[in-house]
């Protein structure tokens, strides 16, 4: 019987992660946030306006606050459909 030589002295194989090479350097240190944890003040103002507005069309009356909330969320990388 002949024995087959197995090379156990080399380092373990590492998978080649090509996506890691494409990732910009600045994104590695950026913390991931949840949408519920950002823009709390803007969201609160928007909700208060929509809920307690006496206008005939609260959506139109609060569009500036809605826009501020969307812009804030966009700054954190969330794109709200509108």
TrEMBL record:
Record region (Disordered): 1-20
Pfam families, per database record: COX17
UniProt signal peptide: none
Classification via InterPro entries: Cys_alpha_HP_mot_SF, Cyt_c_oxidase_Cu-chaperone
GO molecular function: copper chaperone activity; copper ion binding
Alphabetical list of PROSITE patterns matching this protein: CHCH
GO CC annotations on file: mitochondrial intermembrane space
Principal place of residence: mitochondrion
GO aspect biological process, one term: mitochondrial respiratory chain complex IV assembly
Residues that hold Cu cation according to the record: 36-37
Subcellular localization(s) per the UniProt record: Mitochondrion intermembrane space
Keywords per UniProt: Chaperone, Copper, Disulfide bond, Metal-binding, Mitochondrion
UniProt-recorded name of the protein: Cytochrome c oxidase copper chaperone
Source organism of the structure: Friedmanniomyces simplex
